[in-house]
Amino acid sequence: MIRKKFKNWLFHPVFFFQLLSSIIKKKFIPIYERRAIDFFKSKDIYKYFVSGHKDEYTFELIDLKNIFELITSRKPKCVLEFGSGFSTICIALALKENEKNGFFGQLYSVDAEKSWLKNTEDKFPPELKKYVTFHYSSCSVSTFNGQLVSHFDNLPNISPNFIYLDGPNPESVRGKIRGLGFNEKNSNFKGDGIHKTDEGNRWDRRTVNADILLYESSAPHDFFILVDRLYVNMNFLSNNLKHKYTLKKDLALGIVTFEKKYQPYP
Asked: Which of 23, 98, 139, 185 could pair covalently with 112 via S-S, beta carbons 3.0-4.6 A apart?
């Protein structure tokens, strides 16, 4: 039965094309990286991507270029970001670019770790600070229709056109539901991600952020979601979002987008 399902998946024209194109595209990743560097240098903004904390994730210029181009092409008035970092700087730079062309926008960056919010805020140059509002909130485990999820306990009271999903980190999610959680130290749970710590091995369950569902019911007509390498979260959204969306996947770069289909209201 499993072999039959795999065969049907492999020879499905859409899936097969996605798989083939991703394999080919991965061969050209170094070229895309050089193009991204040239892109940011040509706009004289490469200098803004400077590491602050020694433990922070290194920035992926291909991802940042994709975010920048999406913001400048879609020109959202309100952007919501889950998980602060280099993407926060990139979005602010894109909003500044939009402002030059008469389109004004504001970014709200939500994170469950005050230290990472501060690290990002400390790197912000004065000319970009007006484009972003940093928002701290704790993050807790919860359920949605019988599914284990996480949610931020205090969200910005906004109606975003554009959501960038890159958090929370499993370490930031507090609590358990009937013994299940996302933040398990020294447990016997053999999850997807195994990390060595001073306390021993740590197994992390992949986080599923359900906050987007709360924003969807009152979302604008041009509602757009960008998911960065959170494939389990992408599947959750695909199965639980209520409106109709155009779904695009870039398997090579790990990028998935949801674009709300046109509906006849302002």
From this structure: 139
What digits encode the pLDDT tens for the residues 240-261? 999 999 999 887 778 899 999 9
* pTM for this predicted structure: 0.84
Domains and CATH numbers, the chain: 46-260 (3.40.50.150)
177: which DSSP letter?
A: B
Q: Give the phi and the psi of residue 184 in degrees, each rounded to 5.
A: -120, 115
Q: pLDDT digits over 44-84, tens only?
A: 999 998 765 666 667 789 999 999 999 999 999 999 999 99
Q: In what order do the strands lie in the sheet with 162-165?
A: 132-136, 106-111, 78-82, 162-165, 224-228, 255-260, 245-250
Instruction: Give the span between the Cα atoms of 169 and 260, in whole angstroms.
Output: 26
The dihedrals phi and psi of 182, each to the nearest 5 degrees, come to: -100, -10
